[in-house]
Design a protein that fits this description.
Strand content: 5-15%
Largest sheet: 7 strands, mixed
Strand order of the largest sheet: 5-2-1-6-7-11-10
Shape: globular
CATH architecture of the largest domain: 3-Layer(aba) Sandwich
Number of helices: 14
Order of helices and strands: EHEEEEEHHEHEHEEEHHHHHHHHH
CATH superfamily of the largest domain: Class I glutamine amidotransferase (GATase) domain
Oligomer: single chain
Number of strands: 11
Radius of gyration: 22 Å
C-alpha cells in the first residue's frame, strides 16, 4: 500500500484537501473493479481532530493526528488561503514533520499556493517550483533561493513535486497516479474527472501584472512608458535614454527589479494587451498585431505562442465566443 498523507493546515483551501482524497480513493475503486487490490491508504493528517476553515464556515475532521504518523510515502500539501505570510505562521508546527518525512524517504507534493508552505521547509532551496501564476512574484520575493518556473503546470525534482494554480493541481495528481499505477489507470481517472491529462502549461490563463513591487523609480518610469506606448516599436536604447542610464546599467537594473529582461517585459506587456483584444473584440489577427506595434506576422505569432502556449487564432477561438472564423 502507498501511504498518502494529505495535510489539513490552518487557512487551507477545502477543495485542495477534498480533491486529492477523492481522486486517490476513486483510483482504489477502479483497481478493485478491475480485479486488483487497492493501492492507496489515504489519510487526512493534522495537528488536531477538527480543523475549521473559511472562518468556521467549513470544518475538516482529520483521520490521523500528526504526532501519530511516524512514516508515510507521500505528503500532499494543499493550497493555502489568504495572506501567505500569516498562513505560514499559523502552520509552523507542520514544518518539522514535513522535513522529517522527506528525510525518511517520503515524496512531498504541493498543490497551487501550498508551495509557500513547502518553501518554508527549506526543501525547495535551489530547486524548481510551480505555483499559481498570480503568486509567482510573491513566491520569488519571499524565497529568492527557489527557481520559480513561469507558466509550468508540474515540477518534479528529488522527490519533490509542485503544481500550477487552481485546477492545475489535478494534472499533478494525475501525474502521481500514473507514477504509482500505470498510464491506463491515469487515463481512466482523467476521463472520470474530465481533466485534460497532458496539459503542461498554465500560460493561457496567466495575466501579466507587471512586477512593480520594487523601489527603483527609474525602472518604474520605464515600465509606465512601455505600458502607455503599446502601439510603438520601443528600443532598449530609447528606454535607457529616457532615464539617463547607460544601456548595460539599465538592463541590469531592469532585470533585478522586474525579473524580466527588457525585451521580455516589452513582449509580455504587448501580448497581454493583445490577449485582451482577442477576448473582447472582433478584430482579426493583423489588426491586433498592428495595434501592439508588430508588423511581422510570423514574429507576432511566435512570441504570442511562446508566452500563452496558444497561437493567436487558438487563443481567440478559445476565449472569445464572438470570434469570426
Amino acid at each position: 500500500m502507498k501511504r498518502v498523507s494529505i495535510l489539513v493546515p490552518e487557512s487551507s483551501v477545502l477543495q485542495a484537501i477534498a480533491d486529492p482524497q477523492y481522486l486517490f480513493s476513486a483510483v482504489n475503486q477502479f483497481m478493485v473493479m478491475s480485479g486488483k487490490m487497492p493501492l492507496f491508504d489515504v489519510q487526512l493528517v493534522g495537528l488536531k481532530k477538527e480543523v475549521k476553515l473559511n472562518g468556521g464556515l467549513y470544518s475538516v475532521n482529520t483521520t490521523q493526528l500528526l504526532k501519530d504518523v511516524k512514516s508515510t510515502d507521500l505528503v500532499v500539501i494543499p493550497a493555502l488561503f489568504g495572506d501567505m505570510k500569516s498562513a505560514i505562521a499559523q502552520n509552523q508546527k507542520l514544518i518539522p514533520w514535513i522535513n522529517d518525512q522527506y528525510n525518511k524517504g517520503a515524496e512531498v507534493a504541493s498543490l497551487c499556493v501550498g508551495a509557500f508552505l513547502l518553501a518554508s521547509t527549506g526543501l525547495l532551496d535551489g530547486k524548481k517550483c510551480s505555483t499559481h501564476w498570480g503568486f509567482q512574484n510573491e513566491l520569488r520575493e519571499m524565497f529568492p533561493t527557489i527557481d520559480v518556473v513561469d507558466g509550468s503546470i508540474i515540477t518534479e525534482e528529488h522527490r519533490i513535486y509542485s503544481s500550477g494554480g487552481a485546477n492545475s493541481y489535478w494534472n499533478l495528481l494525475l501525474h502521481l497516479v500514473e507514477k504509482y499505477t500505470d498510464r491506463p489507470t491515469a487515463i481512466l481517472a482523467s476521463k472520470y474527472f474530465a481533466i485534460d491529462i497532458d496539459r503542461e502549461s498554465q500560460s493561457a490563463f496567466a495575466m501579466f501584472q507587471g512586477q512593480k513591487n520594487h523601489s527603483d523609480k527609474a525602472i518604474k518610469q520605464v515600465q509606465d512608458f512601455i505600458e502607455n506606448n503599446i502601439q510603438e516599436k520601443i528600443s532598449i536604447e530609447d528606454l535607457s535614454d529616457l532615464v539617463l542610464l547607460g544601456r548595460r546599467s539599465f538592463e541590469r537594473r531592469f532585470k533585478v527589479a522586474t525579473n524580466n529582461s527588457v525585451l521580455e517585459y516589452i513582449n509580455r506587456v504587448k501580448m497581454e494587451f493583445a490577449k485582451r483584444s482577442f477576448e473582447s473584440s472582433r478584430k482579426n489577427i493583423n489588426e491586433v498585431m498592428f495595434e501592439v506595434g508588430y508588423t511581422d506576422t510570423k514574429a507576432f505569432r511566435t512570441i504570442f505562442k511562446k508566452i500563452t502556449g496558444l497561437t493567436p487564432v487558438e487563443y481567440r477561438n478559445k476565449y472569445n465566443k464572438m470570434s469570426v472564423q
